[in-house]
Amino acid sequence: MNVPNLKASSFKSDITPIWCPGCGDFHVLLSVTKALAELGRAPEDIAVISGIGCSSRIPAYTACYGFHGVHGRSLAVAAGLKVARPDLTVMAMSGDGDGFSIGGNHFLHACRRNVDMTYIVMDNRVYGMTKGQPSPTTESDWDSALSPGGTGLRSFHPLVIALASGANFVAREFSGDIKGCTRTIVEAVRHPGFSFVEILSPCVTFRPDEKAWKDQVHVASVPETDDPARAARRIMTDDGMNTGILYRGPRAPYHASVSDREVDLAPLERAFEI
C-alpha cells in the first residue's frame, strides 16, 4: 500500500541507536529511512532483516517489521520471507564480517537466485562489535594489536563477487553522502531482482584512519551499464573509492512456482524404512 506524505521520521522507532559517536551507520540509517519515505510504502509493508554486528542493529531502529537473526544468516531469512510474502518490500542489512565471512556462502547464492530484495552491507573493513579484528575486506597490511603486521590475506572484493554471482543491481556508496545513498537505495529497491549496495561506513573507533574516506571517495566517472563484461572491467580497475551505480542488469527475478500436482511419497518412505 502506498501512503502519501511519508517522512523519514515515519520509519524511525523510538529506540535510540547505541553506535559509537561518529559511526557511519548513523548516516546509513538516515539514508534508509529517507529512501523508504520516498518509496512511499507503509512501514507495515516493509521488512528489515539483519544478522549480527553493529550494522545489524538497524531493524530495532526502524518502525518496520524487523527480524534480528543469527550471525551470517540474514539473506537466508530475507529470501525465505520474500518468496513466502512477495507483497512485502524486503531489505537485508549486514556488515562486512556478518555478510562476507560467515555469511559469504549465503551471499553468493542470494546473488545467483536473484530473489527480488535489496541487500545493504555497511563495510568498515573491521569487526567493530568484537573490538577490532580484521574482517574479510580489511587490507592485508593493516597493522593492529590483534593482527600485528597485517593478515597477509587478499581482501574480499564484494562488488566483484556480486557481479560474478549474478546480482541484478550492484552499487557502492559512502555513508557520509546521504543524498547519494538515499538515491541509490531507492533505485536498488525499485529494480527487480537481487540488488546489492555496499556502503563504505567508517568505524571511527577501531579504524580512525577511515575518517579520511570523506576526502577519498568520488563519484565514478563511468556511467552505469547493463553489460556485465564492461562492469567487470570497471570493477577490476577500481580504486575502491568510486561511488554510484555500477551495474543494472536485465535478469528476471526468481519466482517460486507452486504446483498442484500430487506426488505419491510412499515409495520414498519405504526406501528409508529400517
Question: Can you say what the CATH homologous superfamily is?
Answer: Thiamin diphosphate (ThDP)-binding fold, Pyr/PP domains
Order of helices and strands: HEEHEHHEHEHEHEHEH
N-to-C terminal Cα separation, in Å? 53 Å
Give the strand content. Answer: 15-25%
Query: Main sheet, how many strands, which sense, barrel?
Result: 8 strands, mixed
Number of domains: 1
Task: Give Rg in angstroms.
Answer: 19 Å
Low-confidence stretches: none
Structure description:
It is a single chain. This protein has 274 residues and is of the alpha/beta class. The protein has a single domain (8-271), classed as 3-Layer(aba) Sandwich (Rossmann fold). Helix content is 30%, strand content 16%. It contains nine helices and eight strands. It has helices at 25-39, 74-84, 96-102, 104-113, 158-165, 178-190, 213-216, 228-236, 266-271, and strands at residues 46-50, 65-68, 89-95, 117-123, 169-174, 194-200, 218-219, 242-248. An eight-stranded mixed β-sheet has the order 2-1-3-4-6-5-8-7, with helices on both faces. Helix 8 links the parallel strand 7 (218-219) and strand 8 (242-248). Helix 1 (25-39) packs across helix 6 (178-190), helix 3 (96-102) packs across helix 4 (104-113) and helix 4 packs across helix 5. The longest helix is centred in the N-terminal third of the chain and has 15 residues, at 25-39. The chain is globular. The N and C termini lie far apart (53 Å). The model has no long low-confidence stretch (mean pLDDT 93).
